[in-house]
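From the shared-data thread, chain only:
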Amino acid sequence: MNRNYVTRNLSDLVRKKLTNNCNFWAEEVELDFGKARIDFVGFKPFNIMQNGMNAAAIDKGTFSFYEVKSCMADFNSGHGKTFLGDENYLVCERSLAEELYQKGLLPSSVKVLVPNKSETGLIVAFDTSNSFGTWSRRTKSSSELLWNMINARISNKVELVVSDNGIED
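Structure, as tokens:
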């Protein structure tokens, strides 16, 4: 399979997972004025069922970062290994996950997701996140990350509106 095909299929599975698990998500989210880019970021407010939507639910919400890698060359490209969310995921084919594991190249503090056998969803293949407890690698505020998500080109909630004169509204 070629790299574009693999990336497209893995990205579709990430979109499906985010749609089912997050209230808001965005693609190609830039941080620090374009110095870093995350393939996908999902946001889920903290416990809104119990307390309703309020400022604390936003501030204590969970940001999930997903980086999609189609092959070893993509993994080694030097781009897109930004694992600075509350939850961090590397999404790749099972063969790449196995190769990274065998070579000791799995990033720390991430869960590695691979397609299930029917390729209809993602499952955890490796977990280096030490997810016991509440430790997070996030250094950005909720408001900063949400602003970056709103400014992303693609999201599940924000649509770009172009007027008849071609100017973005």
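The chain has a mean pLDDT of 85.
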